[in-house]
Specification:
heterodimer; A: 288 residues; ABC transporter involved in vitamin B12 uptake, BtuC; 2 strands; 73% helix; B: 232 residues; alpha/beta; Rossmann fold; six-stranded mixed beta sheet; four-stranded antiparallel beta sheet; 10 helices
């Protein structure tokens, strides 16, 4: 009896690990944009929603190959991120933070309403079912395994880009001293535009992975937008390493808490932990 | 090489420079000296286009900089070491140098060797976050970062500010060596006695106006400067 109990606990822990990879990817783009531009994209999850619709329409309606549809969706959301910066963020770049929150909040409702008008409220799905993978007594969803691998790949690729390239170094530098970037020969407006497109592309990648597991509807952003913010705040907003760690902590609370009680309880425990952590470390677990 | 013609400039309606004329010839090292608040930093910021002058023009190698955006100035050959060094504190020393080479990437490896030869201390510290370097090391790193772009003209803003007296000596020795390497240097300093030992010519800036100019020896000997600034 106790053997079986441990196997299922192990399965829950491993599922938590897989979920953690996906949550880490979700937080990545938001953290990147906040860390560099110092603006919170409240509508981040709605960009992901747009990406999910892009995959759906290209794959189901236009019969593109799935991987090509996904690549195109990443491009579409990258362009959306760039547009969001040029037309919404740039005019309020030096405004009060509350105004910046309000405009991106406005974009959230705009995108939700636009998606409802354009795509309707019925749930859509790709009709792609990836099998379960059985390891001994344990079973894992292949969609989650793929999401975990892709999320890890995305994290590593972004890390190498930020460490090893001139552009990546400039993206890290601009968050430390915006005013002297011109003395390095760097146009800050260009770096901000590129960072926004990159944040969009990461949202697009998240969309490709979520669309394998979830139905698409105009309000889907609300089901994972809040948790994405909580993870970013828990890790220290703008701190990508912190967000990464926080994603795995959160996922374990959800998965293991869900194992001992019920799935909903997993979320309750995770949010209670979040509130407690905010008292303990108000600037995030790795915040400075 | 550089000519400032009747420059007036200021911040949000608060004027800081009035009709400033200044010239730096190729290979020369020139200082702008004067008390705190005289407008020395503003002058350097006008030259590197961080602020636009309200009147007058800047010519660099016969080219008028009026239409050049700030981020295109480095590529023309002007590198600016800003006031308070302004390193990127969470990048390593070497990553700061890489930012200096942003417009001139092909030459990164070669220039890195040159800069490390000039500042061996930086090579030891290259993987350390710039914010954890000592004040003198940070100033070295800031100068080295500017040299990484391969400038024709180096602008130095108060390299001795905020450093311990013994470090100030070392920094002026480094500035002397940079000048001796053949760089054209325009340096702004409050430490008049030290800087006049390093440069060949100088301008005295007071309350936004050039009030005196001449060779370093002439200014060192000028009674007005001896009395007001050197305490003789």
């Amino acid at each position: 009896m106790s053997d079986i109990f441990d196997i299922f606990l192990l399965e829950a822990v491993l599922n938590g690990l897989l979920l953690g990879g996906l949550l880490a990817l979700l937080s990545l783009g938001l953290n990147l944009v906040f860390g560099v531009i110092d603006v919170v994209w409240i509508c981040y999850a709605e960009l992901i929603m747009c990406g999910m619709y892009a995959v759906y329409y290209l794959y189901v309606q236009f019969h593109w190959p799935l991987l090509l549809a996904m690549a195109a969706a990443i491009g579409v959301v990258a362009v959306l991120g760039w547009l969001l910066h040029q037309f919404v963020i740039r005019p309020v770049l030096n405004a009060e933070p509350i105004n910046q929150l309000l405009v991106t909040g406005g974009v959230l409702f705009f995108l939700q309403a636009a998606a409802t008008l354009a795509f309707g409220i019925e749930f859509k799905n790709l009709g792609v079912t990836l099998p379960s993978v059985r390891v001994g007594e344990m079973s894992f969803s292949a969609a989650r395994l793929v999401a975990f691998a892709a999320a890890l790949g995305g994290v590593i690729a972004l890390w190498l880009f930020l460490r090893k390239t001139y552009l990546g170094t400039a993206i890290r530098a601009i968050s430390q001293d915006r005013a002297i970037m011109p003395l390095m020969g760097v146009d800050p407006a260009r770096i901000f535009a590129i960072t926004s497109a990159l944040g969009g592309a990461l949202a697009g990648l998240a969309a490709c992975l979520l669309v394998l597991q979830y139905d698409i509807h105009p309000a889907i952003g609300l089901s994972f937008g809040p948790i994405t913010f909580l993870i970013c705040v828990l890790g220290g907003l703008g701190n990508m390493v912190g967000g990464f760690v926080a994603a795995f902590i959160f996922a374990q609370f959800i998965a293991v808490g869900g194992f001992f009680f019920a799935v909903e309880w997993g979320y309750v425990i995770a949010f209670v932990f979040f509130i407690a952590a905010m008292f303990w470390r108000p600037r995030g677990i790795l915040g400075k | 090489m550089l000519a400032a013609r009747s420059i007036s400039a200021g911040y949000a309606g608060f004027p800081a420079l009035f009709d400033v004329n200044l010239e730096v010839r190729a290979g020369e090292s020139v200082a702008v000296i004067g008390p705190n608040g005289a407008g020395k930093t503003t002058l350097l910021r006008v030259i590197s286009k961080l602020i636009a002058p309200s009147r007058g023009e800047i010519l660099f190698r016969e080219k008028n900089l009026a239409a050049v955006p700030a981020h295109a100035v480095v590529a023309l050959g002007i590198a600016h070491v800003p006031e308070n060094r302004r390193l990127f504190p969470r990048l390593t020393a070497e990553e700061n140098l890489r930012m200096g080479a942003y417009t001139s990437r092909k030459n990164f490896g070669r220039r890195l060797e040159q800069v490390y030869a000039l500042f061996p201390r930086l090579k030891e510290r290259r993987h350390q976050a710039a914010g954890t370097l000592s004040g003198g090391e940070q100033q070295m790193c800031a100068i080295a970062r500017a040299l990484m772009s391969g400038p024709k003209l180096l602008l130095l803003d108060e390299p001795s500010a905020g450093l311990a007296p013994v470090v100030v000596q070392a920094i002026f020795e480094l500035v002397r060596r940079v000048c001796a390497e053949g760089y054209t240097v325009l340096i702004v300093e409050q430490n008049i006695r030290q800087v006049l030992k390093v440069v060949s010519r100088a301008y005295l800036l007071e309350a936004g106006r050039i009030v005196q100019s001449g060779t370093a020896a002439e200014l060192l000997a000028a009674p007005q400067i001896q009395k007001a600034y050197l305490g003789l």
